[in-house]
Amino acid sequence: METAQTTARILVVDDNPEIREILHILLGGEGYEIDEARDGASALKQTETAEYDLIILDIMMPGMNGYQTCREIRKNSNAPILFLSARTQEGDKMLGFSSGGDDYLAKPFSYNELVSRSKALIRRYQVYRGKNDAAGDQDDTSGNGKDHSEKNVIRFHELEIDEAAETVTRNGIVVDLTDTEYALLHLLVKNRRQIFSAEHLYESVWGEPYYYGAANTVMVHIRNLRRKIEPDRTAVIKDRVKGFFQTHRLRKWRIRTKLAVLVVIMAAVSISLYYFLWTRQQDVCIFLEKTGIVTFFDEERFLEKLEAEAKKYTVPEMEDEAGVEEMAPFFDEVCDRYTMISVYGEEDNVFRVGNMGGAIADFLYGTYTYNSMQLLGEKLGNASVEFANGTYLVEYRSYHRTYFTFPYTVFCLIFCGSLFLCSILIYMGRVMKRIFCVKESIVRMSLGDLARPVPACGEDEVGILAAELDSMRRTLQENIEKEAESRKANQDLITAMSHDLRTPLTVLNGYLEVLRLKRADPEQQEEFIERCLGKTEDIRTLTDRMFEYALIYEENEVPELRKMPISILQEILTENCDFINLAGFSVEQNIRFPDSSFSGDEVMLKRIFSNLFSNILKYGDKKAPVIVQAVPARGRLKITLTNAVRQTEEDVESNRIGLKSTEKMIQMHQGEMYTIDENHVFTVEICFDISVP
């Protein structure tokens, strides 16, 4: 008896204790060390604590079956696995190999085949493990293992095969292969330009003579090998399909495109359903007859009536017109338009006389009713009936099922049409639901609720509208927040400017106290007076700036408009012209006021022209005249102020607060203001609506 060259350890996993005992005796007699496990869970525990050279695994076990156990063992062990099972179908073997098994032996098995397969698997595994151990020792003792490994590495596309360590990596990641899979890969890569047959591969890798069925073993191992070393084709396909649908996904289609596709699909479905129901009308009709819901032809009653009437009539011995006329009352009494009767001799089966129902004659070939009659079928029967001159064979055919044609057609049309319309209405209902959702968001925004976002409504036109609306909501919310911040900043500025008034007021008050108490010399008194005038100018400037800022950012100011004569506006304009004239400016006036009236606030009008003429005093050049024009035109009064700008003031950047406040007050009077600044000349043009009597 041949013994193992080195003591090998085998784990036998089977729920049948007798089979475990037989394998223990057979393989133990070959010199192997045998461990037993009664189920998959016990086998997993034993493989975690011990190393085995072979695992013999049954498939049909309680709890965890052999396939599941094999997959779990493969997570922490490369020991060869021999499936031992009574399941001999090719699919069972392929499932075993795909689960990580190395060989498959069907029950009942022969002793020699069991021992031969076990020895072959153990031999290859021990060689594989011995080479790995030797490679590991060599790596530990060599000074430069890199050169050695490079010498024994075979590269093929993304794969690297280390012949010394018998390991395979793909893109730097170790591929977990069984010894059989490694041997297959090594053989194919080393001889990459050679074509192998299944027989050659089996004899080269398994080291056994080729037998019938070994080709399946080879193909399963090659399939497992390809699954491990090749890129995941499924993932690649999924990524491509996912990319395609992300680019061309249905959600991006326009509503009319979706509706057109839905109409085409549902039309095809409805037509197909109608055709299916139409071809099944006989089954429906028979079902209704069997359940007693409807009765199209009462055969018993018909036969009773036939036998009763037949005794009154004599059947002609041959078919002729006279005989047909004599039997006509019989047929009229017994038959209706959907019944056909033929009378034959009982002994010679020769046709004597017959009658075709009136409706049957109308069933033209190819017509709708004819096609329905072909599907529904006829009800055929015969009976021996006693006539006045003897007993004859009567054959009758009933076509009463054609009553079912038109109600069934109407039902099919209503059902299929309802299905078609319901699908369209459901789709349009979903679209309308999204539109109403957008509408509710618009209503909320109109009421000032900008905090709640607009719900996403897909990627079609409604979805784009919702996205744009949400973008507008965010923009409005940001603008309102910025405006609120701006208002707060300006209010803070006004507060700070008000606070700044205290400094010049304190200084002014101190100088006045000194002068009142006469604590200063005559020369100092003049200086203190000049300083008081300077502080007064500072206070005036600060108050003007406060006024202008407050006017710009005050929303609640409403002018008290009343109808007034145009002469009031003329007085205000003349007063301001006289003021700048006293300040040293020359004024050229062209003022023509008509006898008319307009709506205005006198106090606000004074502020308007006070601001405009204050700008002239501040920035105007006294060397050039100030031109003031007031001319009526087409129901409006056009006032123009033109002045030259001092050269020293051109480079001073103005915040135009005064002009902004003036423009705002003019708009409150339903007027318009335009400014032109070019060639050192500044022009303001104002238009008011007037009423000419």
Please, could you describe this protein's structure?
This protein has 693 residues and is α/β, with parallel strands linked by helices. The protein is built from 24 helices and 20 strands. A hairpin with a 2-residue loop joins strand 17 (626-633) and strand 18. The longest helix is centred in the middle third of the chain and has 42 residues, at 405-446.
Please give the order of strands in the largest beta sheet: 2-1-3-4-5
Taking the sheet with the most strands, its summary is: 5 strands, parallel
β-sheet strand percentage? 15-25%
Helix-strand category: alpha/beta
Helix content: 40-55%
Overall 3D geometry? flat
Radius of gyration: 55 Å
Number of helices: 24
Measured distance between first and last alpha carbons: 140 Å
Q: How confident overall, as mean pLDDT? A: 78
Number of strands: 20
Which consecutive residue ranges, at least 5 long each, have pLDDT under 50?
A: 1-5, 134-149
